[in-house]
Amino acid sequence: MIAGRPVVQGTAEGAALVTSEALSFWGGYDFHTGEIIDKHHPLAGVRAAGRILAVPSSKGSSTTTAVLLEAVRAGTAPAAIITTGVDSFFALASIVADVMYAKSFPVIALEPNDFAVLRTGMRVTIDRAGSIRF
Fold first, then answer.
1. CA–CA gap between residue 75 and residue 31 (Å, rounded)
2. 80-116: per-residue pLDDT in tens?
3. Residues labelled as active-site residues
4. Contact partners, residue 88, CB within 8 Å, separation at least 6
């Protein structure tokens, strides 16, 4: 178990999708399909929809929030996002999705050494307190 800091509280369960590189959702994520489409990203071609996306941070501007919000509306967003620090763009997308669509997702911040333990394919459960079990 890892104790994380809940930036946006919630519960989620699913397979982890882990990367050590930041991700730009603007031009890097297809909200229609949930696929990572940035050809230069290590997860290019992989679908993050419904998975626990572990990414150190977002990359780019506030358009990340808009694309992620559209993914929530379309049902193609990750089930949760785990980061290595407080990412305001991810948090804002979850908070606005809750207000607009009554569909938020947990955003959990981990210390870098705890983040490094995560591996793609791990079955992960997140509780409201930010604890991550695998």
1. 9
2. 999 999 999 999 999 999 999 999 999 999 999 999 9
3. 61
4. none
Looking at the chain, how many residues does it have? 134
Question: 9 near 131, Cβ under 8 Å?
Answer: no
Task: State the average pLDDT for the chain.
Answer: 96
H/E/C letters for each residue in the chain? CEECEEEECCCEEEEEEECCCCECCCCCEECCCCEECCCCCCCCCCECCCCEEECCCECCCCHHHHHHHHHHHHCCCCCEEEECCCCHHHHHHHHHHHHHHCCCCCEEECCHHHHCCCCCCCEEEECCCCEEEC
Number of neighbouring beta carbons within 10 Å of residue 94: 24
Q: How many CB atoms lie within 10 A of CB 45?
A: 10
Pairing of strands 80-83, 29-30: unpaired
Q: What is each CA distance from 97 to 77, 91, 103, 131, in whole angstroms?
A: 11, 10, 6, 22
Q: Show the tokens assigned to 122.
A: 């791990």
Amino acid letter at 65?
T
